[in-house]
Amino acid sequence: MPTLEATEKLSQEQAKNLDLIMSVPLEVTVEIGRTRRKVQDILSFAKGSLVVLDKLAGDQVDLFVNGKCIARGDVVVIDDNFGIRVTEILQNPSLEELTNA
What we know:
Elements: H1 12-22, E1 28-31, H2 39-43, E2 61-65, E3 68-78, E4 81-89, H3 95-99
Antiparallel strand pairs: 1-2, 2-3, 3-4
């Protein structure tokens, strides 16, 4: 995605508006896979049940911003937490698309 380094060319009002927009929180989620199950199967879930997803170990995961898939990446572990290393940007969505999703 392009960087917004042109702030010195903006008017003072535009710079304030940009600062306001940059503080808008967005929901970021990572999808590691999907599956379809019947209600009967879901009701039989118990602690330790295994749910097999449609992705293989090592496959790239999808990164969503406000429900819109914008990137793919690899799962990484950092200090016992999972994260994602972005390897591919899928498109350049406008800010309006992300905040109105």
